[in-house]
Amino acid sequence: MSEFDLIERYFRPLTQSRADVPLGIGDDAALLLPEPGRQLAFSMDTLVAGVHFLPQAAADDIGYKSLAVNLSDMAAMGAEPAWASLSLSMPQQDDAWLAGFAEGFRELAQAWQVQLVGGDTTRGPLSITVHICGYANPGVALLRSGAQPGDRIYVTGNLGDAGLGLARVLEKIDVSVPYCVQRLQRPEPRVAAGLKLAGLARCAIDISDGLLADLGHICESSQCGADIYLQQIPLSAELQNYYQSQPDWNLVLSAGDDYELCFTLTPEKEAEILAVLKQLGTPVQCIGEITTQPGIRCHHPDGSLFAPDGKGYEHF
Amino acid sequence: MSEFDLIERYFRPLTQSRADVPLGIGDDAALLLPEPGRQLAFSMDTLVAGVHFLPQAAADDIGYKSLAVNLSDMAAMGAEPAWASLSLSMPQQDDAWLAGFAEGFRELAQAWQVQLVGGDTTRGPLSITVHICGYANPGVALLRSGAQPGDRIYVTGNLGDAGLGLARVLEKIDVSVPYCVQRLQRPEPRVAAGLKLAGLARCAIDISDGLLADLGHICESSQCGADIYLQQIPLSAELQNYYQSQPDWNLVLSAGDDYELCFTLTPEKEAEILAVLKQLGTPVQCIGEITTQPGIRCHHPDGSLFAPDGKGYEHF
Questions:
Q1: In this complex, is the C-beta atom of B79 within 8 Å of any C-beta atom belonging to chain A?
Q2: Minimal C-alpha gap between B93 and chain A (Å)
Q3: How would residue A176 be classed by pLDDT, with cut points 50, 70 and 90?
């Protein structure tokens, strides 16, 4: 089957028709007509078999996640996702796999009215690259550089689930943790929360490489530091139950793939922001404060400091 | 070295500052401010080691070509390239390789004022995905669907060089063909010609999969066919010299990677278009006509038909 037949069969059906797409898949390039007066947000992420997912992972989960991690970047900017491009490398054509992949991708694309506008299919080791483009309103996008000393640090959802789910998938733990595995395989991008936070929060990042690494990026970009209170970090019932008395803080602080948002806000905006997020149904938790002192300090309830093993996922 | 150090060291220096990029590399997404009233053209292509280039190919050639193939898609739409995103998967960090890759990429990015605005670096089998975004003026982009019976079919440059260069690189031929190898490794995207053709030519495509395959896409999209006259197909001196009396027409018609443009024009516009391209210094040649009869027929000078082995590069 040629590349063109592949696209025709599996990917054209999942393209939705947006008014700002004069020409979609099928030519040398797609043509887009951006809404006037808005900025565009571009992001691109790659998932490689054996690195970002197990080669035997379900095709629909891979399709879902390849879009989810990119939507999470839109969430972290407070941007509204619009157009996706997909490049798929596969060792050989596998129709069942492709159908599953397309279905997982479509599920999330449809939920956020994202149109697939182009891409590439090639022979090669299994790898997926997605480019996402969204709309941002000028002046309100959530940058990493906006944090200021005295800001409160918040996270959405729970941390550590995907890390524990990965331990299970890799058979490093014996206990079944289906919720955590689900969180690993089907992360929920916090797009709605990001859109609400735009213009209200001071800064945001999505937690893809672990809280310490990603909060570290905020601190570097904003030239500040942070105090984190371990007992305030939100943990799922399944994770708490697995660890019983004492969670593995290294996992909670350094495992990636949760795709929750970490954001900071000035105390004066706290009530307003919390009300908006409550209305949205997005769980959030204050976990610490931005400081002038550089570095991130993780405090135990007794006031002692926790010394983490690492800072997060290192790509090389 | 972390992903962030890698980006900082090798890729930030090659980003040029464009006025339409409010926020470049370094956050969850780049922010772009498109020029009002213009359309955007999106395209994305992947090059995989061992499939699209030899693993031992020079890093700077790979960097150059990964952008060149995407610029060629802009050329085929008559679009003006603006922003690129780059995803790079590598088995391990190799500083000399990265420096070479970045240099080859930069060379072409600088020539076309393309700013690198984002991307991803991951561990994995060597593979490069580039997303390119350019500007198209509404109503003048070059679509595959615009050809009409009676149109003359033109190509830029020469065909078959990259195919012969590949045969040499794969050691399938004994004779040195340095010009053809150069054409394989450093294809010149016909961006300037594409910009001139926008609004004048009826349709265009870039020849990445071979003339028959790519002209075939025009014919399918435009619901027409084509007559091609073999003796009119432009061939380089090196290729003619290699083949002496009779070129390998299968190679000339079906080998990909030349990245020349194939376009059609109505005879009334011929003089105007040829004058514009002559001024630009872009060599072009009429190779046949669009017909109502479907299919592509390749005519020998004696009137007999050539029957090609295949239609072009099949991805699977």
A1: yes
A2: 6
A3: very high
Find, among B254, B252, B277, the residue nearest to B265 by Cα.
Answer: B277
Give the distance from residue B302's alpha carbon to the nearest chain A alpha carbon, in angstroms.
Answer: 33
Tens digits of residue pLDDT in B216-275: 999 999 999 999 999 999 999 999 999 998 899 999 999 989 999 999 999 999 999 999
pTM of the model: 0.94
Confirm if B283 and B96 have CB atoms less than 8 A apart.
no
Instruction: For B269-296, write each residue's pLDDT tens digit.
Output: 999 999 999 999 999 999 999 999 999 9
DSSP E strand stretches across A50-189: 80-90, 115-123, 127-136, 152-156
CA-based nearest distance A301→chain B, Å = 32
Question: Which of helix, strand or coil describes residue A194?
Answer: helix
Buried b (16+ CB within 10 A) or exposed e, A227-253: bbbbeebbbbebbeebbeeebbbbbbb
Nearest to B118 among A4, A43, A143 (CB): A43
CATH number of B144-304: 3.90.650.10
Best to test chain B binding among A28, A142, A202 (most B CBs inside 10 Å): A28
Distance CA B221, CA A26 (A): 9
**Which of B5, B27, B145 should one mutate to test binding to chain A, selecting the residue with the greatest count of A CBs within 10 A?**
B27
Return the structure tokens found at A218: 């905020």
Element (H or E) spanning B133, and its range? Answer: strand B127-136
Q: Is pLDDT above 90 for A113?
A: yes
In the predicted model, is pLDDT for residue A79 greater than 90?
Answer: yes
Third-level CATH fold of A144-306: Phosphoribosyl-aminoimidazole Synthetase; Chain A, domain 2 (3.90.650)
Phi, psi of B303 (to 5 degrees): 95, -15
By C-alpha distance, the chain A residue nearest B217 is A27
ipTM: 0.94
Residue B36: φ, ψ to 5°: -65, 145
CA–CA distance, A253 with A261 (Å, rounded to integer): 14
CATH number, domain A3-136? 3.30.1330.10
For chain B, the structural domain boundaries read: 3-136, 144-304
